[in-house]
Amino acid sequence: MATAALVIAILALLGAFLAFRRAGTLQERLERATGQIYELKSALAAANEEHEHKLNDLRLELRRQAGEAIFDPKMTIADAMKVHPKVQEVLASFHLGGCSHCAISDVDTIEGACQSYGIDQGALMNALNGLVSGESGGSAGLTATIANAKMSNVKVVF
Length: 158
Description:
single chain, 6 helices
């Protein structure tokens, strides 16, 4: 009886050892698969970003060919920033989003930001549309436009 118990114990230890080795092998395979999934996810995100950029370029070109205004006052800041890489520079030159006390949200519309911060909406729209039409006149033309862009008739009441 003691011999049978010893044999069963040895077989149980052997089974546990084999299970432990198998678990280690499975752990290694799982780690490799996880690494591959991470690499594929990164590649997919990069491809997605590239396709989104190309799609935005195509939309911009279609609007340009149709003669439509590229920027719309009802457009959100986030949407405007997707249109052209220099939109953020134009907004900052109008003192929108350039510092902590005049920070704007991506969900704000261009129209709402102009109203909130007393910016001449027409001047901002001209500067933004000048980015895609190439008529911005460079930084000197933009600076001249911005100099007169603050509305003098806006009152702030506390």
